[in-house]
Amino acid sequence: MDLSSLQFSQLQKHHIPLVNQFYKQVYKKGLANKSEQVFVLKNQEILCAARLKKVQGALLLTGVACNEAARGQGLASTLISQLLLSQVQTIYCFPYPHLQTFYQRLGFTLFSADELPEKLGIQYQRYNSRKPLLCMSRALPNENLRFKQP
Q1: Side by side, which strands form the sheet with 46-55?
Q2: Are 51 and 39 within 8 A, CB to CB?
Q3: Most exposed: 9, 70, 85, 96, by fewest CB within 10 Å?
């Protein structure tokens, strides 16, 4: 599949039902809601989707899913890389352990769940109680510089 022929976009709120139809077909877990930022990679149809959920001012990457026929072609990497370009703060994610290398290639690093903002930590504990998950984040390259005194 030619990745350059695909369209990356952030869905407008009124298009959320389209991604929820996609999730019902390929993801089977959770649905997007209008309070989240929803990103897709598509040609004539949605091939890959991801959401950024605001939790206590922090952003949580969640709901990363690809159409089964399009898996293994770099679509999730492309989608996540593109959505990260539009962000101005640290992004957190709670991937399954087998996805650690995938997220590390995208610039995410492991860290302790004890370092999460309070509400995000509570959400992590709730998710982690069902299946073991990692706690990862991706800071912007110059994010730490914004807070240093000249």
Answers
A1: 7-10, 37-42, 46-55, 58-66, 91-93, 136-138, 109-110
A2: yes
A3: 85
